[in-house]
Amino acid sequence: MRIGVLHSRIRIEEKLIIEELDRRGLDYEMIDDRALIFDLPGGRAWERYDVILERCISHSRALSALKILEVLGLRCVNPYAVAEVCGDKLNTTLALVAAGVPTPRVKVAFTPESALAAIEEIGYPVVLKPAVGSWGRLLARVQDRDAAEALLEHKATLGTYHHSIFYIQEYVPKPGRDIRSFVVDDDTICAIYRSSEHWLTNTARGARATNCPVTPEIQEISVAAAQACGGGILAVDLLEGPDGRILANEVNYTMEFRNSIAPTGVNIPARVVDYVLSVGAGRQALGAPASRSLPSHRCDGPQPDGIGPATTSGAAGAATDGIAAAASMESMEDVRPRNA
Ligand SMILES: Nc1ncnc2c1ncn2[C@@H]1O[C@H](COP(=O)(O)OP(=O)(O)O)[C@@H](O)[C@H]1O
Ligand SMILES: [Mg+2]
User: Fold this and answer.
1) Which of 120, 178, 189, 251 is the most exposed place for a label (fewest CB within 10 A)?
2) What is the dihedral of CA 222, 80, 253, 136, to 10 degrees?
3) Residues whose beta carbon lies within 6 Å of some atom of ligand 1
């Protein structure tokens, strides 16, 4: 079996995955999204992969690459449809609500005026979030009408396309922490508390990670949230409400886990590789709708020999078999790290 690892800058997570692949002597190639050219309707160059593990940093690159790869017939972890749901908080909310998974209340509005009305219906404080984003960036806890008006005006005047939809969430008065659980298939393999003095508890913002025992309730809501989004390898953010009830806040599809191995004692990269192998072997029914209708992962019939993946294989990163790579400038705008 040959695994393709689609990546951007190699983070600690990718290093750990590479170490695990090497330790097991698996056949894999690293595919750098910064040098990648898809030549359509090509496809032959991709036939050598049984499965692609998507580890792009940019959501837009991940979405486009997954879409193309699935059309070419490849099995991807996670599938396009999962990325589409998880990479957008509104899509995630819709999926959670549709599946009956407890989640904070959300209102969506399209103008500053209706957004202000929505905020006041929920009552202060509320949380405003860009639908696409991560690391707690551009989240705002809004405490009063003055702040709401100012923020809405700024978003309407200065915001990019991503701020044109107002995603307004009730503030959950959590106990100085949230919970990040890791789901692989139908198992919550571990969880951490992320504790901080700040209301944002992303580890990327300095929150401390400690082990969180996976209670039956955490197992149940984590798997329900993950499966609502199509399932696979997912990290779920959970919020503990004042009544002790746990709510699923968001689901991350290219999860970062560097801070979670030591506190939990769980070898997360090993579980990632196990799952990728089972998808590559066709033992997993990929859960997302787009993937259910996937054809066989091989491309049938004559195909033009398009320029394919720009690859290196093995941790040493040697270039392989003459498949072209093109140097490309990293577009800052496009690179949106996520999900820590
Ligand atoms: N509705 C909320 N109530 C309380 N805290 C929240 C709420 N939404 C987000 N947070 C805090 O902000 C952090 C980041 O929010 P999240 O929705 O996960 O966005 P990101 O994709 O940037 O991680 C969460 O981990 C949590 O600590
Ligand atoms: Mg988050």
Assistant:
1) 120
2) -120
3) 104, 127, 129, 133-137, 139, 169, 171-172, 174, 178, 199-202, 237, 239, 249-250
Closest CA to 102 of 203, 215, 236: 236
Full-prediction pTM beyond 0.85? yes
Helix (H) / strand (E) element for 210: namely strand 208-211
Q: Which ligand is nearest to the CA of 241?
A: 1
Of 171, 178, 238, 260, the residue with max ligand 1 atoms within 8 A of its CB, to mutate for a pocket test, comes to 178
Q: Of 101, 38, 2, 22, whose CA–CA distance to 326 is shortest?
A: 38
Q: Give the whole-angstrom CA distance, residue 29 versus residue 207.
A: 34
CA of 301 to the centre of ligand 1 (A): 48
Task: Give residue 158 CA to ligand 2 midpoint distance, Å.
Answer: 24
pLDDT digits (tens, 9 = 90+) for 86-131: 999 999 999 999 999 999 999 999 999 999 999 999 999 999 999 9
Which helix (H) or strand (E) segment is 57 a member of?
none
